[in-house]
């Protein structure tokens, strides 16, 4: 198992480079808004620091109009590190282990745009992006620091320090609040959801949105033991047990609590799951390394679905079945669900994954992702929709040219009846 867990870690190390390239080469033509960085230097004396000891940071777009007292807090993603070696690799890259190389201004779109046309739900809210630099979904807390590595495992302290700073800047008066995040940040959203609710007790409505953060255990699928071992290593290295929801961590191996299926049933705060039955990251990084076959073939398949073999497609179908079964285990009246069949990972930071998701043929019950979440958040609809019609992954890639996207997005919607 050790070899397989290392393979899993190696995949994540390569992913760090991909994350860095995506975040730094995304064309400005599709990113229409800019927000400024704030460093929480006062957090350092509390030990709330990144892996490399730098202070936590966040980007903040100030709310206005009737959204001035509403807050949306977004937790960045970027996988995890499960050993001293993989955490040090992050420090070398810096992007996911430090705030020292983060730009003063960040360009954004999707759920962060102030353009009401493309973000009717949250356009005028206070919107915050908390920088991910701890490697453990904002839930680590180890007091000791090894002087030979100078690694700090303090994700839980970072979360609290940034939230405290936001509370002092007006979030304590929030009327409505949302905690959200993508990938590892989507998992962090689930793990910190009830805690976030307790920190804004005067808000009328507090809910959480997990974007591609519903990582499944898949106990009957290849790699189940390796997935569990990997998350166990993450939990132990970062001292996550005391920061994880105790409804889970007090009853089982804390590493299992990084699989949301073991946490959601005991959550008190309403949660929305936005995900795919064929999540690209889960299939490529958490399943494919353990099913055998040629790595190059899987690389080809996950890059171009037309190159997938019949056996690869069957494995994906089996993953779909496991995902559906896991969803059935956690269903509740307060749980919002938008689970589709596009072969992708993460949604809310782009137009085609948010207001314009119909352009990518990604709608359910004739609702875009933004419309579904808007209805659910304001209790206009419970919205629990899963694309159970499609049994194979769909390519939902669209042009990222801003002018083309705007033209298609503003055009009247023509939606296939099944969606």
TrEMBL record:
It comes from the Eukaryota. GO terms for biological process: cell wall organization. GO terms for molecular function: pectin acetylesterase activity. One of its GO terms (cellular component) is plant-type cell wall. Its main location: secreted. It is an enzyme of class 3 (hydrolase). It is found in: Secreted, Cell wall. Keywords: Cell wall, Cell wall biogenesis/degradation, Hydrolase, Secreted, Signal. The keyword Signal applies. Residues 1-29 form the signal peptide. Coiled coil: none annotated. Its EC number is 3.1.1.-. Belongs to the pectinacetylesterase family. Hydrolyzes acetyl esters in homogalacturonan regions of pectin. In type I primary cell wall, galacturonic acid residues of pectin can be acetylated at the O-2 and O-3 positions. Decreasing the degree of acetylation of pectin gels in vitro alters their physical properties. This is Pectin acetylesterase. It comes from Erythranthe guttata (Yellow monkey flower). The lineage of its organism: Eukaryota, Viridiplantae, Streptophyta, Embryophyta, Tracheophyta.
């Amino acid at each position: 198992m050790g070899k397989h867990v290392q393979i899993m870690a190696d995949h994540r190390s390569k992913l760090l480079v991909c994350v860095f390239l995506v975040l730094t080469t995304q064309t400005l033509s599709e990113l229409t808004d800019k927000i400024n960085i704030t460093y929480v230097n006062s957090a350092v004396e509390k030990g709330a620091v990144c892996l490399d000891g730098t202070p936590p940071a966040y980007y903040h777009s100030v709310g206005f109009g009737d959204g001035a007292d509403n807050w949306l807090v977004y937790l960045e993603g970027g996988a995890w590190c499960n050993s001293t070696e993989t955490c040090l690799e992050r420090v070398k890259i810096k992007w996911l282990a430090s705030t020292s190389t983060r730009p003063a201004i960040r360009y954004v779109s999707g759920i962060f745009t102030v353009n009401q046309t493309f973000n009717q739900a949250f356009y005028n809210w206070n919107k915050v992006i908390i920088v991910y630099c701890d490697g453990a979904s904002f839930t680590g807390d180890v007091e000791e620091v090894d002087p030979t590595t100078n690694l700090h495992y303090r994700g839980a302290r970072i979360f609290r320090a940034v939230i405290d700073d936001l509370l002092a800047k007006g979030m304590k008066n929030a009327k409505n609040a949302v905690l959200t995040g993508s990938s590892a940040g989507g998992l962090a959203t689930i793990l910190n959801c009830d805690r976030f609710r307790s920190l804004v007790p005067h808000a009328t409505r507090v809910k959480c949105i997990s974007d591609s953060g519903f990582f499944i255990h898949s106990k009957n699928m290849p790699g189940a033991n390796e997935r569990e071992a990997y998350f166990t290593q993450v939990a132990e290295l970062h001292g996550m047990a005391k920061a994880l929801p105790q409804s889970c961590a007090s009853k089982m191996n804390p590493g299992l609590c990084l699989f949301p299926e073991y946490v959601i049933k005991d959550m008190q705060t309403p949660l929305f799951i936005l995900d795919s039955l064929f999540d690209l990251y889960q299939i490529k990084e958490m399943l494919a390394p353990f099913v055998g076959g040629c790595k190059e073939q899987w690389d080809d398949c996950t890059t171009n679905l037309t190159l997938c073999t019949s056996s690869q497609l069957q494995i994906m179908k089996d993953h779909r079945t496991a995902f559906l079964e896991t969803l059935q285990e956690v269903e509740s009246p307060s749980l919002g669900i938008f689970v589709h069949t596009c072969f992708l990972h993460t949604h809310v930071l782009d137009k085609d994954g948010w207001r314009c998701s119909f352009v990518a043929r990604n709608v359910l019950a004739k609702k875009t992702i933004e419309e579904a979440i808007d209805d659910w958040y304001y209790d206009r609809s419970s919205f629990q929709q899963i694309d159970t019609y499609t049994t194979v992954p769909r390519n939902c890639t669209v042009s990222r040219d801003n002018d083309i996207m705007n033209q298609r997005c503003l055009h009247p919607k023509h939606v296939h009846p099944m969606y």
